[in-house]
Amino acid sequence: MAQNMMLYWGSGSPPCWRVMIALEEKMLQGYKHKLLSFEKNEHKCEEVKALNPRAQVPTFKHGDIVVNESLAACLYLESAFKSQGTRLIPDDPAEQALVYQRMFETNNLQQKMYEVAFYEHYVPEGERLESALKRNKESLVAELKLWDGYLEKMGKGSYLAGKSFTMADVVCFPIIAFFPRLHCPRERCPRLMEYYEMLKDRPSIKASWPPHWLEKPEGPDTLKNL
Amino acid sequence: MAQNMMLYWGSGSPPCWRVMIALEEKMLQGYKHKLLSFEKNEHKCEEVKALNPRAQVPTFKHGDIVVNESLAACLYLESAFKSQGTRLIPDDPAEQALVYQRMFETNNLQQKMYEVAFYEHYVPEGERLESALKRNKESLVAELKLWDGYLEKMGKGSYLAGKSFTMADVVCFPIIAFFPRLHCPRERCPRLMEYYEMLKDRPSIKASWPPHWLEKPEGPDTLKNL
């Protein structure tokens, strides 16, 4: 069933990783894929551009269906393979609302993490400002506190949207995994770090772990002084 | 049915507007609501904070279910009232994939529009740089070209994800409406402007049109030199 699927991806890209976790959870192992190097700009290749005018990864194709936005691909997979593998969107309206809420809140965490951890990547050299980076850090600290509070309130051993692993975890885990890797002080988000420990060996996550993270488990320490 | 719904909102906020369009499309008129003034910082009030730790609007409650992220609220409403009003997410997998794809791509258009139109709002005075604003403009122009191309390819009279009005339109229209309002040159996105004309009088959109836009149809000309 996964034979007619093709994923173009980059190692360590959270949007790619979440699609790969969803594929694992939906028991769609065996999909075709091509690992592209960001450093070599391989994601800008013609093969990707033909399917994705943004020339970004993930670029995902299932039969004739192309769906490249990571959340779109995740929701599509859940809908197309609803009864296969893990149910990632629950039926109960209250549970469903919380899953959606956390899924889309992840954007905040993602953007704020990027704006600190990859500040130098996104802001050209002549435009970098201590005041801006300081503000970004404060904003990220506040965001982490919010997420840590969510987990605290849900209780020990909880997933992001309750007692079961859901699409909220698929979407958010790849962001959370950056915090220990980039040396974020544990006290900034102790509950998130427990959550990370609980999930990092889950089969879907382990199977899709970024290969260059396996080679070099420690990343740069851009979150050290948070 | 809508009597046990409560929406806190701000006039002209695209995330609020999209929830209001969804409510109209799902025939949920009659929901309770409270219009809050951004200028007076009313969205930071205790009433909102009690439901939304981000102190943002939209803040939306249905019975005991609170769902504040605009896309989460939209998907929740579609799921909870699937057979009522307009079907906003089609059943057909290929159609569904395109609806999701355009829904989530909207984030790009939204952020790039904000980074030009509201540059002075987001960047403190001492940090503003011509080089950054210029880059933001180029990025927005490229983004508009992409969306215009999507519509061009779909053919005259098409909605964002095909021949029917879907969640893609609910999510994206409130962003597109800023372009004519903020004096974006028509030639930057002629197909989008035709799409805007086609949709602006749709009942759900007209009923939820930002009240301060009705009072003052022309906004500042921050997109004039795009």
Quick summary:
Two copies of one chain form a homodimer. Chain A is of the alpha+beta class. The first copy, chain A, is built from eleven helices and four strands, in the order βαβαββααααααααα.
Q: Main attributes?
A:
4-stranded mixed beta sheet; alpha+beta; 2 domains; Glutathione_S-Trfase (chains A, B); 226 residues; Glutathione S-transferase Yfyf (Class Pi), Chain A, domain 2; Glutathione S-transferase rho (chains A, B); homodimer; Glutaredoxin
Overview of this structure, please?
- Two copies of one chain form a homodimer.
- Chain A is built from eleven helices and four strands, in the order βαβαββααααααααα.
- By secondary structure, the first copy, chain A, is of the alpha+beta class.
- Chain A has two domains: 79 residues, Glutaredoxin, CATH 3.40.30; 123 residues, Glutathione S-transferase Yfyf (Class Pi), Chain A, domain 2, CATH 1.20.1050.
- The first copy, chain A, has a four-stranded mixed beta sheet with strand order 2-1-3-4, with no helix packed on it.
- In chain A, α1 links the parallel β1 and β2.
- In chain A, α1 runs antiparallel to α7, α4 runs antiparallel to α6 and α4 packs parallel to α7.
- The termini of chain A are far apart.
- The mean pLDDT of chain A is 97.
- At the A-B interface, β4, α3, α4 and α6 of A face β4, α3, α4 and α6 of B.
- Chains A, B: This is Glutathione S-transferase rho.
